[in-house]
Design a protein that fits this description.
Leucine-rich Repeat Variant; two-stranded antiparallel sheet; two-stranded antiparallel ribbon; 13 helices; elongated; binds zinc ion
Length: about 290
């Protein structure tokens, strides 16, 4: 059904737009029809004629049925159990299982969280986040716990994928293991992402906690981190809290209420009496951002 399409052809049926009844519908931003080109590869057609647009739901259902028929889940599940399957095959099989909406996909993907290859583990985490299936919460938490137990693991690697998946699922059972990350000095490293924007890992952790339990959960975690023996951590907690006051909210969240800003301020007042001069200094600078 899909043929090479030029600019003047419908990308689904390949009819010329100039033909009667084949008016172009690509002006609408949401005009898209899902099709698959190759096994496991979905794409969206945006230059679609009036007729294909009218029956796009029917067309997508038909495409999906064809996809499911061409890709029975049995061999895909078997491929994931095959120790000799390479990374690419494993990743493709995982994606397809999620696309197919197979109920057995979730336990199979959870097993891949323990795969020897880090890229396979990260892909499994990402896909589990997409499923939003609560069965993945415990395995993701356990993997995150083990992953950060290795002191050479950067939080920007595998842990950030695991954390994002847990935030996507949004189950409060993940709060404990993610909160604990803020007591670790690796949480306060910066990295350059998406070109030139510098991001702090702790902002990402705070955003994940925010999506699990709102700002109060974030402050509980910072409160705990403020009482760790590590001066470096306490110093950075004070800086983060100062930044929160400066922004009037968490980096990815809404503006905070007066009560919430008051909680942050009280933590900074506590930090301004810290035994370390460095921490006291950061806390005092942060308090200058409180303007209510
Ligand atoms: Zn068409």
């Amino acid at each position: 059904m899909l043929r090479k399409s030029g600019a003047d052809h419908c990308e689904v049926c390949n009819r010329r737009f100039k033909a009667a009844g084949a008016r172009v519908r690509h002006e609408l931003p949401r005009t898209s029809v899902a099709v698959y080109r190759r096994v496991g590869e979905w794409s969206y057609r945006r230059r679609v004629c009036e007729r294909c647009w009218q029956r796009h739901e029917e067309y997508e259902a038909e495409t999906r049925r064809r996809f499911v028929r061409d890709n029975p889940p049995g061999p895909l599940l078997a491929m994931l159990r095959d120790r000799d399957a390479d990374e690419e095959a494993r990743t493709a099989a995982m994606r397809m299982l999620v696309e197919l909406g197979v109920p057995d996909a979730v336990p199979a993907l959870c097993d891949q969280l323990e795969a020897p290859s880090e890229s396979v583990r990260c892909e499994a985490a990402k896909l589990l986040g997409e499923t939003k299936d609560a069965r993945a919460v415990e395995p993701l938490c356990q993997r995150l716990h083990r992953s950060v137990a290795d002191e050479y693991t950067s939080f920007f690697g595998e842990p950030s994928f695991l954390m994002a998946a847990l935030a996507d699922i949004g189950d409060p059972r993940a709060a404990e293991v993610i909160s604990a990350l803020l007591t670790d000095r690796r949480a306060y490293r910066w990295d350059t992402v998406a070109g030139d924007m510098d991001v702090s890992m702790s902002d990402g952790i705070a955003d994940a906690l925010d999506s699990l339990g709102g700002p109060d959960l974030v402050f509980d975690a910072y409160e705990r981190a403020l009482h760790t023996p590590d001066e470096f951590v306490r110093d950075h907690v004070a800086r983060d809290l100062g930044n929160i006051l400066w922004r009037g909210g968490l980096s990815g969240g809404d503006d905070m209420s007066g009560r919430q800003l008051g909680v942050v301020r009280r933590m900074l007042v506590t930090a301004s009496r810290d035994p370390s001069e460095r921490v006291r200094h950061s806390a005092e600078s942060g308090l200058k951002n409180f303007r209510r």
